[in-house]
Amino acid sequence: MMDSVLLLVAALAGGLLNAIAGGGSFLTFPALVYVGVPPVAANATGTLALLPGYLSATYAFRNHMAPPPGMSWLGVLGISALGGGLGAALLVITPDAGFQRIVPWLLLVATVAFAASDWLLGRIYRAGRAVPAVVARAVLFGVTLYGGYFNGGVGILLLAALGLVGMRDMGMANGAKNLVSFVLTLIAVILYARADVLVWPLALPMMLAGIVGGLLGGILGRRLPRRLVRAVVILTGAIMTVVFFLKA
Coiled coil where (predicted)? Predict the structure, then answer.
């Protein structure tokens, strides 16, 4: 019973955080590992659990969405689907022991990216022009590849990539980030399912909690103190990073 409560709370809070700024995997992945799920399956199952939250968050931001300048939704989502699919394919061929050694470094990268996000995004979104189109699209592909492999911190990295593509309105970028996250995660989850690395009995109730969390995030995103949300995500990421380094 306590394990079930832990997973539901992690999915609810993860969906909420993902809708606002990202970082939901800092909660769902460790919770699944804690209850005994192997690392690769925990990563895949946690990603599935947050998938509906991305969709509900996209719906909540539906009036604040537009593709980046010079790109169509078809182009953006095509890159997202390709990157998410290749990232998922890499995950399913990674042995659990190897992935367990990589996880602390992935968590460290995600935590540092989140902690530095204000500085990073500020520089990108205040820039006078976007980087060359081929570079911007390569960055977007790289971030979605990372997102298909390990979902932690992908929201912040996507906001940075969208800024490089040319988006200058943070509200619009946040809406686009949710849609891109949904598409790359959907493709990744399909490949996870085909590889039979999903723990469905745990994923399904977590998905319901993730939906509620995503809707709450869309509603509360403009009301919750931003510094408080950031502090919670950074602290959680730092603690999980230390824990997994100690276990590696």
Answer: none
